[in-house]
Amino acid sequence: MHPAVTAFHHKPTGSWTYVVMDAATRSAAVIDPVLDFDWRSGRTDTASADRVVEHCRAAGASVLWILETHAHADHLSAAQHLKQRLGGEVAIGQGVRSVQRTFKAIFGLGPDFQPDGTQFDRLLDDDVTLPLGNASIHVIPTPGHTNDSVSYLVGNAVFIGDTLFMPDSGSARCDFPGGNAAELYRSVQRLFSLPAATRVFVCHDYAPGGREPLCETTINEQRRVNTHIRHGVDEAAFVKLRTDRDATLDVPNLIIPSVQVNIRAGRLPPPEIDGVSYLRVPVDVLGKPGK
User: Fold this and answer.
1) Which of 103, 105, 151, 172: disulfide with 162, CB 3.0–4.6 Å?
2) Which residues contact 39 (CB under 8 A, 6 or more apart)?
3) pLDDT in tens, 169-192
4) Count of domains for the chain
């Protein structure tokens, strides 16, 4: 089955959002939608998400699912905005409860925030299958970047979140709380077991060397030429490469607002008595001293 895939690039964060549709029934899922956010002013905007809304309406798509590959640390989710405009259930891997527990402590969230996943319409068990018209969505657990990471296989297309980037950019970092480079290696091997011609859609592309941003590759190409992890690279070598590289990285620019919104399924924190939502900034907690 060859689903129709439309990609939307969010230049400020290097993120890709996808609409995947069963052409026969027009049943669709939106994967990893992005909410515009200006960290300097604290203002949100829905212009990027509205491009997705307009596309779905023009295509006559019936959106059944709004899917997150994980609780992102580099962009805010527009899941609730899309749900209001298009319908559909907001879903994420069941491992998000662990992420919620971790970041509830980091951000000092009070008893009103329950780390039980109920902020989402559905938590997805490993290897569960979701209906999509005449097609189906198979949920593949791919932890390592985070411990809630999943990939979505629809026919001959797989949406892998931050498990891998385009082959010239390698793999995702594993130094966030709950990340694990050895787990990421094993997750990639599971993806590599898919048919060689499987289309692979990444969640981010930072266009190294100034090339145009790209979103699609194949399992075969990743197996052959991924700069970090390909056939012939063993687990120990990958873990060392990934760990050494992670030690040089700063925290993502938007980790503080992103995680607080994304563990709430794309909702801002509840407004205070003045009607304004506030984000919490933990001091001397995230990142490395001196960075």
Assistant:
1) 172
2) 253, 254, 257
3) 999 999 988 899 999 999 999 999
4) 1
Do residues 286 and 106 lie in contact, with contact meaning Cβ atoms separated by under 8 Å? yes
Residue 100 lies in a domain: yes
Give a three-class secondary structure readout of 207-218. Answer: CHHHCCCCCEEE
Instruction: Please check whether residue 281 lies inside any domain of the structure.
Output: no
Burial 118-156 (b: 16+ CB within 10 A, else e): ebbeebbeeebebebbebebebbbbbbbbbbbbbbbbbe
Closest CA to 11 of 269, 275, 212: 212
Please list, in sequence order, all residues whose beta carbon lies within 8 angstroms of the beta carbon of residue 54, skipping any fewer than 6 positions away. Answer: none
In a domain, 278, yes or no: no
CATH assignment at residue 50? 3.60.15.10
The gap from C-alpha 110 to its chain's centroid, in whole angstroms, comes to: 26
Give the pTM: 0.96
Q: Which of 98, 83, 134 is nearest to 263 (CA)?
A: 98
The answer to whether residue 277 is domain-embedded is no
Residue numbers of the domain that contains 71: 4-259
pLDDT tens per residue, range 259-273: 999 999 999 999 999
